[in-house]
């Protein structure tokens, strides 16, 4: 599948998620290898007003969304794939005032479940804020959706 089509599908999917729009998430990169989303630093993601530290819930939202949307990188047609299971291991806190990136890849696709893994990071994926693994249920092709037309 062409990289431009994968990116288009990822942007369409992200555009349907109102909470992600409110957080300002953007597609940073998308291809057959995986998906990277950008979560801009803002007041909306601060968990500790005294330090400006990023709330863990914002990282969870970023990684659940990144893993879920990464399914468009491997599926031939758009499918809704809700989260079955998500595990996040936090390695260190995100630094205040800096954007957070989430990368996810699909490492196994079955007829019923897609398995994903990834990292949240700021500058270097080799210095992760968190590691994630997730499982997503395949519900089949969505007929007549904007994502299906891509």
Automatic annotation (TrEMBL):
GO terms for cellular component: cytosol. Keywords: Hydrolase. CDD domains: PaaI_thioesterase (cd03443). Residues 52-127 form the Thioesterase domain. GO terms for molecular function: 1,4-dihydroxy-2-naphthoyl-CoA thioesterase activity. Coiled coil: none annotated. This is Thioesterase. InterPro entries: HotDog_dom_sf (IPR029069), PAAI_dom (IPR003736), Thioestr_dom (IPR006683). The keyword Hydrolase applies. Pfam families: 4HBT.
């Amino acid at each position: 599948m062409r990289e431009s089509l994968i990116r288009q599908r990822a942007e369409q999917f992200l555009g349907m998620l109102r909470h992600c729009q409110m957080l300002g998430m953007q597609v940073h990169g998308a291809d057959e290898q995986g998906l990277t989303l950008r979560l801009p630093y803002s007041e909306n993601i601060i968990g500790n007003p005294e330090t400006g530290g990023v709330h863990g819930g914002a990282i969870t939202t970023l990684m659940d969304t990144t893993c879920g949307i990464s399914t468009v990188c491997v599926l031939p047609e758009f499918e809704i794939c809700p989260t079955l299971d998500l595990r996040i291991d936090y390695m260190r806190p995100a630094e205040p005032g800096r954007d957070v990136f989430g990368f996810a890849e699909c490492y196994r696709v079955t007829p019923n479940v897609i398995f994903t893994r990834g990292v949240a990071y700021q500058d270097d994926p080799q210095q992760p804020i968190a590691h994630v693994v997730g499982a997503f249920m395949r519900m089949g092709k969505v007929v007549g959706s904007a994502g299906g037309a891509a």
